[in-house]
Amino acid sequence: MKVLSIVPYNIFSAKLGGQKGIALFNKYLAKECALYCVTVKSNQPSYAEGYTLYPLLGSASFRYINPFNFFLVKRLVQELKITHLILEHPYFGWLGILVQWATGVKLVVHSHNIENTRWKSVGKWWWKILFRYEGAIHRAADYNFFINEADRQYALKAFRLEERKSAVITYGIEWNSTPTLNEKQRCREQLVQQYGLSADTNILLFNGTLGYPPNLQALQVILERLNPLLLSSSLTYKIFICGSGLPENMQGLATYANKNIIYAGFVDDITTYFKGADLFLNPVIEGGGIKTKLVEALAYGTRTVSTVNGSIGVSKEDAGDLLQIVDDGNWPAFATAIITSCAVPAPALPPAFFEKFYWVNIARKAAAFMQT
Predict the structure, then answer these.
(1) Distance CA 355, CA 188 (A)
(2) How far apart are CA 143 and CA 167, in angstroms?
(3) What span, in angstroms and rounded, lies between the C-alpha atoms of 239 and 232?
(4) Which fold is adopted by the domain 181-348?
(5) Cβ-based neighbour number of residue 104 at 10 Å
(6) Other Cβ atoms within 10 Å of 363 Cβ, number
(7) What percent of the chain is modeled with pLDDT above 90?
(8) Complete edge-to-edge strand list for the sheet that includes strand 52-57
(9) Which end of the chain has fewer CB atoms within 10 angstroms, the N or the C?
(10) Residue 97 and residue 76: Cα distance in Å, rounded?
(11) CATH superfamily of 2-173+357-370
């Protein structure tokens, strides 16, 4: 099996969850088959681990409709004797279908969101056009990968897909066991010392790209709805806000320091915060796909409280009691879950979590499915 992946935007060095998802998927898929990738010129070949990168696509929006890309990709498919062509997102679907017709290559659509519903949620009028286009691309594909089971079920019904052509290929993590209790305690002590906290302080963490609307909305929920409820309780805590891209109108976040909020901004080593936190907060109520920070927090053995929307793609069976799920918008219940979670030691993460979310297993599943 020889695979050519089309990655339509910059993924190196990966910062956003979507960028990391593609970069890591390719890294581990390359261990299962011969992998090549055609992508935009801003992606440097030196970053590609275990596979060959062809940075041939332009960066302008015109690249999505540039007819010359057909000849470029067709030539690579024929020269490299490619058997499977993976589209990251459906936007290059027209190109994939043309190459499929011209060369007989198997077409794979790797969906990271249901795109039409994502654009509908932010009020774009053309979501109905995208719905028809997206459905046509998925129906034409030989294989369809979805980021979670909810997206797959939606596609089976809305796009009228054959079930045998679809599989859940989720976001993953690169380690297959949680840190030791000693390691987590060292990280916690480092944060306590660095920020001058008392030893009994419960460290609550929120992390994400703060310019991304669902994350920004979640941050506002923390500041305006959850924190006032926590301030009225007897909980000793600090909420750490980590992430880049804070909008200009939120630059006054530092003024919340006297309300138990610590704005750490972009930090060099977020793993210290994940490991050292007593609780990860995930009050996200919008956005599709899977919340990559939730997967990472749980994989670090950090207890998490999440909304239903924020937990899509991660079930109670996956995470056990390490994950508490609260109805979207029920902020009093969310605050109560924070307080009760801080009162007891974090439970162990079920082994099933790593069976599902370890990148080695994910890549093997994808490779095996493409050979069915």
Answers:
(1) 27
(2) 8
(3) 15
(4) Rossmann fold (3.40.50)
(5) 9
(6) 23
(7) 87
(8) 52-57, 34-40, 2-7, 84-88, 106-110, 143-146, 166-168
(9) C
(10) 15
(11) Glycogen Phosphorylase B; (3.40.50.2000)
Sheet hosting strand 279-282, strand order edge to edge: 261-265, 237-242, 202-207, 279-282, 304-307, 323-326
Instruction: Give the pLDDT confidence of 164-182 residue by residue, as tens digits.
Output: 999 999 999 999 999 999 9
Residues near 267 by Cβ (< 8 Å), separated by ≥ 6? 242, 273
pTM, full prediction: 0.93
Whole-number average pLDDT of the chain: 95
Q: Which amino acid is at 110?
A: H
Crossing angle of helices 127-140 and 93-103, in 10° steps, is: 20
Query: What tokens were used for 125?
Result: 């009028």
Question: Where do we find the tokens 């994400």?
Answer: 208
Largest separation between any pair of C-alpha atoms in the chain: 67
Domain ranges (residues) in the chain? 2-173+357-370, 181-348
